[in-house]
Amino acid sequence: MVVGVLLYRRPSFVSSTSPRDSSSSELKGLSLVTSNSSHPSRISGIPDSLSFDKIIAGGTCSPITCRDFMSYLLYVEHAAENLQFYLWLRDYTERFNALSENEKALSPPVPVSPLDPRLGPKSGPGVRPDNIVSKFLSDAFCSSPQQPAVPSPTKPNPFTTPPHTPGIFGDSDYELGNSAIAPFSSIESRGLNKINHRQIAAEAYQSAGMGWQPFSVHPFRDEVTRVVAIYIAEGGPRELNVSSRDRMAALHGIVHTTHPSAFDPLRKTVEDALLYQAHPNFIRWSIRNGNPPRIIFAICLGVGTILTGLMIALLLTLSNLSRGWRAMAAIPWVVGISTLFAAHKGMCVVLHGIHARNIHPWELWADEGSNGESSKESFESQATSNSREDEPWRAKYEKRNPIRKIFEKQVRIKEPALRQIQNAIFLQSMIVAIIASAILCAAFVTLPSGGYLP
C-alpha cells in the first residue's frame, strides 16, 4: 500500500538534467536514495524489482520488459532515441573493451582540457589541428617519444579496423521481449542506409569548428560516423535532445578518437533523461490496465452506480420504512466509489480481478507485415527515423468499433511486482469507498422519515 501511495503522489518527473526542460532545478515530490545498482541513485517509491537496470537487463516480465519500455517511448512519449542510443553505447563500450591492446591503442581516451574538462581536446583558432593529431599518433604508435613501438607479428595488425560484431544480446531476446542490438553489417544488407552518413558527419564536424576529418584507421570509425549522423548531428533522423555545449564537446572528442570516453558529454544527459523522467513515467503508465475507452467506460459506470445509490437513499428517506433500510444504499456506493477511484488511477477493477490488461493498439496488428518489422527496427541503433505516424495500425484502429475498443482483447499481467502495486491501489479504492459510504449512510440515516411514499 505504501508503494502505491508513493507512486501516485503525481510528482513532477522533470529533472534539472532532463533534455526537455533544462530550467527545472529539482525533482519535485521525489527523493534520491542510494541503490546497489550500477547507477548511483534511483527514484524512491519504485521497487527494486522494477528498477531501470532490472528492466534493461531483462529481469522483468510483461508488461515491464525492455521491449515494452521501447514501445512506450516510441508511441507514447515519442523519445525512443535516448534508449536506443543508451543501448548502443553500452554495447559499443563492451565491444571496444574486448579489442586487443594494439587495436585500442589506435583510439586512446579523450584527453581532458585543463580549461574545460567537458570539451576534451582544445580546438579553435589558437590551436593547430596538426599538433593534436601528432599527439594522438604519438600515443598510439610509440611506447616512448624516442622509441617506436613495433607490433609483434603474432598480434593482430593495429591498422586493421576490427569487424563489427553483434550486440551483447542474442536473437532470442526478441522472443523474450528484451532489448537487442542489431549487428552493424545487417543494417546495410537490409537496405536501411538511406542517408549519406559521411557527408552529414562532415557537416557536423565543420559546424563544431573543425576543418579536418577523422582518421579511418580508428576502430569502428564507420560505425561511429553513422552514429554521429543519426544521433548527434543537428537534424539527424534520431537527433538526441541535448544542449549545444554537450553536442560540441562530443564532436570534438569523436573527431580525434573512437574511444567510448568521447561520448561522455552525452552519456550523463541521456542516462538522466531515462532514469529520472522516462523510467518513472513508464512505470506509472504500465500500472494502467485499461485502454482509454475502457477507463472512460469505468468512470461513467462508477458515476452511474453512485447516482443509483443516491436515488435509493432518497426514496427510502421519503418512504415510511424504518431508517435502517437506508443503509442499503451503501452497497452501490461502495461499488461505485471504488470503481471511480480505481478508474481515476487508470485501473479497471474487473480487469484487475483477473490480473489482465487490455492490449495496446500497436499490439493488435503486431504480427502483420511492416508493423512487426518496425518493432525490430526500433532496437536497431543505426536504423531510420523513429517516426511511426504512418504505420497501418493507426488507420485500422481509428475505424474500430467503440464498443469493441471498450471490450478489447486482454492479456495476463505476468510481472509480480506490478500486480502488487495494483493490489495496493485496489485496496486504497476499497478503503476510500467504505469510508465515504459510511459518511453518506450516516447523513441519510439521521434524516427524519418523509412519509411521502407508502
UniProtKB/TrEMBL annotation:
| TM region(s), chain numbering | 295-318, 324-343, 424-447
Q: What is this protein called?
A: RGS domain-containing protein
Q: Extract the InterPro entries matched here.
A: RGS_sf (IPR036305), RGS_subdomain_2 (IPR044926)
**Record keywords: Transcription regulation included?**
no
Region annotation Disordered: residue ranges?
103-125, 371-394
Question: Which N-terminal residues, if any, form the signal peptide?
Answer: none
Nucleotide-binding as a keyword of this entry, yes or no, is no
User: What keywords would UniProt list here?
Assistant: Membrane, Transmembrane, Transmembrane helix
The record's listing under PANTHER family reads: RGS DOMAIN-CONTAINING PROTEIN
Extract the SUPFAM superfamilies matched here.
Answer: Regulator of G-protein signaling, RGS (SSF48097)
